[in-house]
Amino acid sequence: MKMRAKRLQGKAVESTKTDGLSRLRHRFAQADTEGRLNNTRRTLLRAVLDNPAETYFLSSRELAKRFDLDTATVVRTVQALGYKKFADFSADLREHFVMRITPYRVMKTAAEEGRSPAGHVAASLKKDLENIMELRARLNVHQVLQAAKQILRAGRVLVVGVDYAASLAWYLDYHLTVFGIRSEAPVGSSGSLEHKVRTLTSKDLLIVISFGRCLRATVNAAIDARSHRVPTLGITDSEFSPLARHCDTHLLASVGNPSLAASYTAAMALLNCILVACAHIVPEHSLQMLRQIEKDRHDSERWFE
Q1: How far apart are CA 101 and CA 304, in angstroms?
Q2: Both 31 and 96 in a single domain?
Q3: By the 8 A CB rule, do 299 and 200 touch?
C-alpha cells in the first residue's frame, strides 16, 4: 500500500487552477463534491489529470499497471465519475490532454520513453494514421456539405489561423481562391486581424482554425464576428474547445502526435474534404476556373521544361 501511495503521490500535482474546458475535470470535481471518491480514487484521478500525456493512450489494464493498482480499482474509479465504459473515459482524457498540451510537455514525455529516433518516427506515422482513421469514422459528410454551401454563398470568406495554424489558413484560402471564391487569410498583428474581421457583414463568412486550448486572437475573432452577426465556422479538435463553443458551427479533426505539439495530417484531410465539396457542388464553375488556369499556365513559362 505504501508503494502504491508513493507512486500515485509522485504523479499527482496539487493545483487550485482548472482550465474550465475539460469535461473530465468537471466530472472529477462533481464526483469529489458528492463524496463518490475515496482517497485512492481521488489520488489516482489527480495523477491522471495532471499527467495526461503519459496516460491518455493507456488501456484500463495498462493504467492499473502504471500506478501499481488492480484493474478493478481503475474500472470502479472510472464508474464513480459516471462513465459506463472505459472507452468513454479514455475519449474525455484524450480531449483533456489535447487542451493542456504544450510542445515542451509532449517532447519531454517522448524523450523519456527511451525509443530510438527510428522508433519515434514510426510512432509519429502511426498516430497520424490513427488520426486519419478517426476523422473517417466520425466525419459527418452532411456537415461538410453544409459548410461548403455556406462558403459558396458567402460574399467574402476570411480564414483565420494564427501561429502553427497559419499554414492551414493559407492552404484553405489558396484553394478557395483557385475556385473563384473571394477568400483571404490575413497575416500581421492581432490589431490588423481585428480590423479585417470588422469589415465582414452578415453576408460573409469567418472560418477560424485553432486547436487545444485555442489561441486568444483566433477565439476573439470568432467572438467579435458573432457579436456583429457574421456567420462563423470553426475548425478545431474538441466539442469542448473554445472555438466549438463560440462558433455557429464547427468541424473536428484530431491533431495529437507523440512527439509534436500538433500534427495537422487529419486537419489537412478535413480541409481537403471541404474543398472537394466546394468543387463538386458547382462542378461547371469549378471546371471553368480550372480550365482558365490551365490555359494561362500552358501559355506561360511556369514550368521548368
Answers
A1: 43
A2: yes
A3: no
